[in-house]
Amino acid sequence: MESTTTYDSSYSSKENYTKRIDKNYILYLSKKLGKGGFGQIYMGENLETNEKVAIKIELLKNNNHKRLIIEFEILKVLNDCDGFPKIYKFVQTSSKNLIIMELLGDSLEQLFNNYNRKFSIKTIFQIGYQMIQRIELLHSKGFIHRDMKPGNFLIGINNKSKIYLIDFGLSKKYLDNFNKHIAYREGKGLTGTAHYVSIFTHEGIEQSRRDDIEGIAYILIYFFKGKLPWQGIHAKKKKEKHKKIMDKKKSITPEILCDNLPNEILLLLKYARTLPFEERPDYNYLKSLILEGLKHLGLEFDNKFEWNID
């Protein structure tokens, strides 16, 4: 179950036509913000307040898994949490599910492209710090994300220094109702985006908190280098492509992968890869690595990025 979700705050300039969701909201069908395996995202508007919103739509076909219901339940738990989109309403019809939520800005992937695929070291470290904060909070609520990638982190519109974690269609509870950790299992299919999933995930091992951390490490390496060594691999079938990506990941040592990068990135990756399946990551240690990285380079942690200092 590989994710292909994209998110872009720009939209088509086609004729602006709308669809009424209910008495309070309209959907701008010409203003698509993103699309993915489990739904499409459009801009909408609250007719009472004139506030622009994002509306995620899932068409119900052939008794599919109704992932948007799962995402809504997770977002309800996160609704008052910093760095997660606020939800306003869930609408269900005979043919589709819709979540009406806070409108956010560009994704980190889009911003990376906007700045010629080069972020400053300071920006990358500060991105990493907020990513760890978001995943720590998500994990504290009993969920793992399972789809770490630059396209699933967006900046705010009013506060461009805040990075939001989105898209919980692949997320899963790792704790049951008795706070017991899910069981270790093998033979699982790949869930997530192949470029950023952990080696354990490639090997078919049930995901846990450690896999989200390894995904963050790959995102940071991607921002430092502009490309991961296994990006650009081609194959006729998806399963064959995933196998080639896994083999490439396993063949490159962390030291080679992080060559010429700050040592803290190497330590983060090695830490994630050696975590036991059920162990709680030491988030304070991971955040301290980021702060040490900035300190060693004489950089100030001030939440100023390329996109909010122009």
Largest sheet: 7 strands, antiparallel
Number of strands: 11
CATH homologous superfamily identity of the largest domain? Transferase(Phosphotransferase) domain 1
Shape, principal axes of CA atoms: globular
Counting structural domains, the number is 2
Termini separation:
39 Å
Order of helices and strands: EEEEEHEEHHEEEEHHHHHH
Structure commentary:
The protein has nine helices and eleven strands. With 310 residues, the protein is of the alpha+beta class. The protein folds into two domains: 97 residues, 2-Layer Sandwich (Phosphorylase Kinase, domain 1); 201 residues, Transferase(Phosphotransferase) domain 1 (Transferase(Phosphotransferase), domain 1), CATH 1.10.510.10. Strands 1, 2, 3, 4, 5, 6 and 7 form a seven-stranded antiparallel sheet that branches. Strand 9 and strand 10 form a beta hairpin. Helix 3 packs antiparallel against helix 5, helix 3 runs antiparallel to helix 9 and helix 5 packs antiparallel against helix 8. The two termini are 39 Å apart.
